[in-house]
Amino acid sequence: xxxxxxxxxxxxxxxEGKIAEIANYIPKTMKVMMTYGGGSIKKNGVYDQVMxxxxxxxxxxxxxxxxxxxxxxxxxxxxxxxxxNVGFLLAVGGGSVIDGTKFIAAATCYDGEEPWxxxxxxxxxxxxxxxxxxxxxxxxxxxxxxxxVITRVSTQEKLAFHSPLVFPKFSVLxxxxxxxxxxxxxxxxxxxxxxxxxxQYYTTSxxxxxxxxxxxxxxxxxxxxxxxxxxxxQPNYQDRANxxxxxxxxxxxxxAVGTEQxxxxxxxxxxxxxxxxxxxxxTLAIVLPGVMRATKENRKRxxxxxxxxxxxxxxxxxxxxxxxxxRTEQFFNSLxxxxxxxxxxxxxxxxxxxxxxxxxxxxYAIGGIDDVNVxxxxxxxxxxx
Length: 385
Ligand code: NZQ
Ligand code: ZN
Description:
Elements: E1 11-14, E2 32-36, H1 40-43, H2 46-53, E3 59-62, H3 71-83, E4 88-93, H4 95-108, H5 116-120, E5 131-135, E6 147-152, E7 157-162, E8 170-173, H6 183-201, H7 209-231, H8 237-250, H9 264-276, H10 280-294, H11 300-311, H12 320-334, H13 348-361, H14 377-382
Parallel strand pairs: 1-8, 2-3, 2-4, 4-5, 5-8
Antiparallel strand pairs: 6-7
Helix pairs in contact: 3-4, 6-7, 6-8, 6-10, 7-8, 7-11, 9-10, 10-12, 11-12
């Protein structure tokens, strides 16, 4: 285990009815900007619950944050936040709304010329408006981490930024708000969570027993609860609760401590979204099997552990590693997610554009371990055509 500092300041308000408590944690003197997406919260009653909870407070709204939130849209919110002297941001939505709101928080206080530099160049975030979240889609972990992923439409770029200043002050996780999610988004969330865990677990790190067991526990929870969530005609509260907490635990930093990480599946996936607008979860389901095959020799130990502990495959079998990869892909397919580039009309031209992008960026390793790199990203993507 490597040395680490672990810090997570997010207060989690978990369970049915918890939205009613939010006003207890927002300073009464501050003007609040409530941010949201394309309007799902107005149809499923979440908007009304939030507004009821904020009664008597000074609240303005900013709606219309897209999936894969657009820099261009977020900058409109920044302008309003500055003009209106907003003191607190409340994100009500999925990862896109929460990520977008983290960017608004940082960009509003940014004193450089071009807030895009926070994302593009990692310009330091020296200040940020305080923010909180009401999560409506279990998937990204954004509700309990300090990262955000922003898309710039004009340049077809999708890039991540991090700052301890954008941890939410609190996040509400009410499993009931997931009842209105379409199956496609539930599947995306299950895949996203699965792959978050893999990017922190499937490495060459040894002697990280606790982290490995936490990770395997989250994966096994998804294998049990995921199919139930997908099949339910009537949402089951306990299944939704377990799924929601698994998603948060998948990317709140806990399983990442003291180990290597390799975010190559995500970084390659972001390019697919940037060029083709594919859902985030879909891109991961396409890329992960290719990354696993390309790295199976270098990460053999962990792959066999994954095969045995997560899938119950006899790790002494000669094809145990391949079986584990195939079972993983079949699991994504069983959720209704297709896992080939061709299923989405993506071909060789995109493979070449992505390879070139990674080369132009000048880093050899794509995600943290150099067995996925600018020299084999093409082969990985070709294997997924
Ligand atoms: O916009 P509305 O109308 O709210 O509809 C959304 C959107 O169309 C809908 N939705 C959300 N909650 C709902 C609902 N519909 C009905 N009922 C509800 N309760 O779902 C659609 C997708 O929402 P979105 O927020 O885009 O999905 P997700 O949570 O999967 O977020 C994806 C974004 O997060 C980034 C991704 O790259 C992508 O941009 N990620 C953020 C991470 C982080 N901050 O740590 C890590 C992740 O790896 C990921 O990269
Ligand atoms: Zn993700």
